[in-house]
Amino acid sequence: MIVDVGGRDTTALRAALTVADTVLIPCQPRSFDIWALEGMAALVVEARLINPAMTALSMLNRADPGGLGGDNRDAAAALKQIEGIGYLDAPIANRKAWPNAAARGRGILDATRGDAKAKAELEASLRGIYDVQRSGIQTHASAS
Ligand SMILES: Nc1ncnc2c1ncn2[C@@H]1O[C@H](COP(=O)(O)OP(=O)(O)OP(=O)(O)O)[C@@H](O)[C@H]1O
Ligand SMILES: [Mg+2]
Hints:
Rossmann fold, disordered C terminus, binds adenosine-5'-triphosphate
């Protein structure tokens, strides 16, 4: 089961953290978004008191297309530093395919005229999440 809780400190987020196997925290490669992750990390650490087996992973979404340079690289380095949250090295770039697919009521994986790069990035991140779950890494996990 997947619970989409939004990115704010809500009752729904805290409730989900008490029972989740894995919490996935997408983050844009921008300073404000990265700073917000510190607050999230504190919630994760607190939730582990009652849900010690929870895996927590951050990843880049809306990364700058064109690979891991510039802001993407700096953001990835900052995310890796955050205690209690592992970094999933499978960035999803900012691509117009995402809103275009949504506007047609399609997902990226099943979009008929889907963007191959967006699809490949999503598939790589899904593989990364499953790999981490299988390997049983709990904290400070790095899928990279
Ligand atoms: N990788 C991406 N490339 C391009 N656009 C994206 C990407 N990811 C998300 N978006 C766009 O950003 C907007 C917000 O996305 P989404 O609703 O998933 O964000 P959210 O963080 O879950 O927001 P909320 O906090 O409101 O739940 C949407 O218009 C979506 O199409
Ligand atoms: Mg949302």
